[in-house]
Design brief:
Layout: E1 7-10, H1 16-27, E2 31-36, H2 39-49, E3 52-55, H3 61-74, E4 80-83, H4 100-128, E5 131-136, H5 149-169, E6 174-179, H6 206-218, E7 223-224, H7 229-239, H8 241-259, H9 264-267
Parallel strand pairs: 1-2, 1-4, 2-3, 4-5, 5-6, 6-7
Helix pairs in contact: 1-6, 3-4, 4-5, 7-8
């Protein structure tokens, strides 16, 4: 797969990994529709890249369909739909302590948004015998995220849905990738200036993450791991699940002892 001339819809595009992906795809010759709820940042980025943009709530199926209709009318058939929007809210106490609103939002943003995207573009892709669906999950969807069960659980579901798409439709010309990064220097982790994290071991900049994702898409890799070490953690979890759980419990206890609470913006520095 080459990006030159490809028509891409990218959600969650206004900042963080999304903005880095937009710049990387544009540099490789793609034509973009950028979507986000942050209209000022979205407009600025679209102006920088000469891209189309629309404010879009990915949890509203009608918004997704409106974006697709605009792209098809303006640019042509959608080649790639990259569902990137996401969030993390943490949990106040035990693993089920986050309110229903957080659990529901995690389900809507991390799972149903992918479903809505597929409903909007998959029939036409299958009719053409080609198309590419890319879904942003997380290493938490393969492993787990200490201190955010709603995030981890919904990201596991996102990985499962991507697998279902690949199983059901790869033989009909559909390409599918699921992206599972570990820690990236974005505002979600408290980094307004990613350069400030340059020396943090294991922490990638959004730009490096975007480059690795684009490279993997070019070879049409299903499971994209911007942090290659995640594959080793997956192997340990698969072959020694009890030892893996024990190691995770010890890590959780160590983080609480050091930090006093499980704050994503702080604890990744002590992992």
């Amino acid at each position: 797969m080459q990006f030159q001339g490809k028509i891409i819809i990218l959600t969650g595009a206004a900042g963080g990994i999304g903005a880095a992906l937009a710049r990387e795809f544009a540099a490789r010759g793609a034509r973009l529709m950028l979507c986000d709820l942050n209209e000022p940042a979205l407009s600025d980025l679209a102006g920088e890249l000469g891209a189309l943009h629309m404010v879009c709530d990915v949890t509203a199926q009608s918004d997704i369909h409106a974006v697709v209709a605009k792209v098809e009318a303006t640019l042509g058939p959608v080649d790639i739909f990259f569902s990137n929007a996401g969030f993390s809210a943490g949990e106040p106490d035990h693993a089920a302590s986050a309110p229903d609103s957080v659990w529901q939002a995690a389900w809507e943003v991390h799972v149903m948004a992918h479903v809505y995207a597929c409903r909007a573009v998959l029939p036409a892709m299958l009719a053409r015998g080609e198309g590419y669906l890319v879904q942003m999950a997380s290493a938490a969807g393969l492993l787990n995220q200490i201190g955010d069960a709603a995030y981890s659980t919904s990201k596991h579901a996102a990985v499962g849905f991507a697998e279902a798409l690949a199983i059901s439709h790869a033989d009909e010309g559909l390409k599918v990738s699921v992206v599972c990064p570990q820690y990236v220097a974005t505002p979600m982790l408290g980094y307004d200036d990613p350069a400030s994290a340059a020396q943090m071991p294991g922490l990638l900049s959004p730009e490096v993450t975007a480059q690795r994702v684009a490279d993997a898409m070019e070879v049409e890799r299903f499971l994209i791991l911007p942090h290659p070490q995640v594959a080793d953690y997956m192997a340990f979890k698969a072959t020694e699940p009890d030892k893996w759980l024990s190691a995770m419990r010890k890590l959780r206890a160590r983080l609480i002892a050091k930090l006093g609470r499980l704050d994503l913006a702080q604890m990744h520095k002590w992992m």
